[in-house]
């Protein structure tokens, strides 16, 4: 059996094992080990590759960015900073038609600029925003749909755990990826806001249960002093982390450390932490970090196996003979990523497709920072699409309302999925949107 055929068989076997329920990292390691064994005919070489990749994959101080930003995310959620951001946005936008929906998008964007974890955003705003929207007469499907749709901002607006993973897999600067994600993230948030306003006028029953918004209650107005006090922590975190990173005062790893320290101070000042909850946060941070580390190690092994097989070169030659250009390749790639997103989680998609597709992107002369932004947006669409739709399942498990079914949530996310697809096309055909801050 030729090395290329072995690599093709490994891809099919890998997808079958993942869909059968085996952990993605374990599948990558096993398939890569067997693949190298068959290509070289020696299990000793495969074992040595496994050991070497385990050492090389995360043996860098740069990898410290992962636990630091994960810790920041957990501490921010613990300190109720997301809840405060929503309350402030609600006060500022309450008189705008569809204002609560836009407030959810705005507060998710703020939360994303601090944490970078979509699942955390989905869980936090399901508890905070959905009951408030229901109280003011919003359609339940719209309420859960806008939370699910805006939660994906967490992986696009920096800091982003998915961009960190992409940076490791593609050997690109995490800081540059963070910078490149700012404008596309704000563009997506703006698209959501405009879409909500349009829906509230053109198709009001999709937004409001009775077809019209309930009148706001002026008794709920927040005093100016309280509003300022609630927004200060969010502004401080964003200015310190993103401002310092973009101004070049510190690296992405150092930005993670600054964010974690500030989040810890805010949580302590608000008396949201004690010895028990702090230990729980640290333990969860360790669990996530170890999981990501294992994934990166196994993805490194898989990448080396594919390189050894000559599969990337074979695909480049095949596409050249078929007359496929860069645009056709990119469209095919996006379709594959979105299709995988329907059944596989975000990190797994990156681990599966990037080792194979990055050499092709380089062969077509694509900017890998821009390619990373396009990849993240395409992957995040999968968080909203059935049958997997991880954000949808998180919302369903967090929502204490049996009257809202899983199908209702998927239907509620459909308009936001279409908005994401529109923004994705803009990013594909206008790369300058992603690269404007890097010039």
UniProtKB/TrEMBL annotation:
Keywords: Cell inner membrane, Cell membrane, Membrane, Transmembrane, Transmembrane helix, Transport. Part of the tripartite ATP-independent periplasmic (TRAP) transport system. It is a multi-pass membrane protein. One of its GO terms (molecular function) is transmembrane transporter activity. Residues 11-433 form the TRAP C4-dicarboxylate transport system permease DctM subunit domain. The keyword Transmembrane helix applies. The chain crosses the membrane at residues 12-38, 58-79, 100-130, 142-169, 181-203, 246-269, 281-303, 323-356, 368-395, 415-438. Belongs to the TRAP transporter large permease family. The complex comprises the extracytoplasmic solute receptor protein and the two transmembrane proteins. It is found in: Cell inner membrane. InterPro entries: DctM (IPR010656), TRAP_DctM (IPR004681). GO terms for cellular component: plasma membrane. This is TRAP transporter large permease protein. Its main location: membrane. Signal peptide: none annotated.
């Amino acid at each position: 059996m030729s090395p290329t055929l072995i690599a093709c068989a490994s891809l099919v076997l890998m997808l079958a094992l993942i869909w059968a329920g085996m952990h993605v990292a374990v599948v990558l390691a096993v398939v890569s080990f067997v693949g190298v064994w068959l290509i070289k005919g020696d299990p000793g070489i495969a074992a040595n590759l496994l050991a070497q990749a385990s050492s090389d994959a995360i043996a860098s101080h740069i990898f410290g960015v992962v636990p630091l930003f994960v810790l920041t995310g957990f501490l921010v959620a613990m300190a109720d900073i997301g809840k405060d951001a929503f309350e402030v946005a609600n006060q500022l936008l309450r008189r705008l038609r569809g204002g609560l929906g836009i407030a959810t998008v705005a507060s998710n964007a703020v939360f994303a600029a601090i944490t970078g974890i979509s699942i955390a955003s989905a869980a936090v705003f399901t508890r905070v925003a959905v009951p408030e929207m229901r109280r003011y007469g919003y359609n339940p499907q719209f309420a859960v749909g806008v939370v699910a749709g805006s939660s994906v901002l967490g992986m696009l607006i920096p800091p982003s755990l998915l961009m960190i993973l992409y940076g490791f897999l593609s050997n690109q600067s995490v800081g540059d990826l963070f910078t490149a994600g700012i404008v596309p993230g704000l563009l997506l948030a703006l698209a959501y806001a405009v879409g909500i306003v349009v829906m509230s006028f053109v198709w009001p029953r999709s937004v409001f249960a009775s077809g019209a918004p309930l009148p706001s209650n002026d008794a709920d107005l927040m005093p100016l002093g309280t509003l300022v006090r609630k927004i200060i922590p969010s502004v401080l975190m964003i200015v310190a982390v993103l401002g310092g990173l973009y101004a070049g005062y510190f690296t992405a790893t150092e930005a993670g450390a600054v964010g974690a320290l500030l989040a810890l101070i805010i949580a302590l000042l608000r008396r949201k932490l004690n010895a028990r909850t702090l230990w729980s946060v640290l333990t969860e941070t360790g669990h996530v970090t170890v999981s990501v580390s294992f994934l990166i190690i196994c993805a490194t092994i898989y990448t080396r196996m594919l390189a050894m097989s000559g599969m990337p070169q074979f695909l480049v030659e095949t596409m050249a003979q078929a007359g496929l250009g860069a645009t056709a390749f990119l469209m095919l790639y996006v379709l594959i990523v979105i299709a995988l997103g329907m059944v596989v989680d975000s990190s797994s998609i990156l681990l599966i497709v990037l080792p194979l597709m990055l050499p092709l992107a380089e062969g077509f002369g694509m900017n890998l920072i821009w390619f990373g932004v396009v990849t993240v947006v395409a992957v995040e669409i999968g968080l909203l699409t059935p049958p997997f739709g991880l954000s949808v399942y998180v919302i369903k498990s967090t929502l204490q309302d049996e009257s809202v079914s899983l199908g209702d949530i998927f239907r509620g996310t459909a308009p936001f999925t279409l908005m994401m697809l529109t923004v994705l096309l803009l990013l594909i055909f206008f790369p300058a949107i992603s690269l404007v801050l890097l010039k």
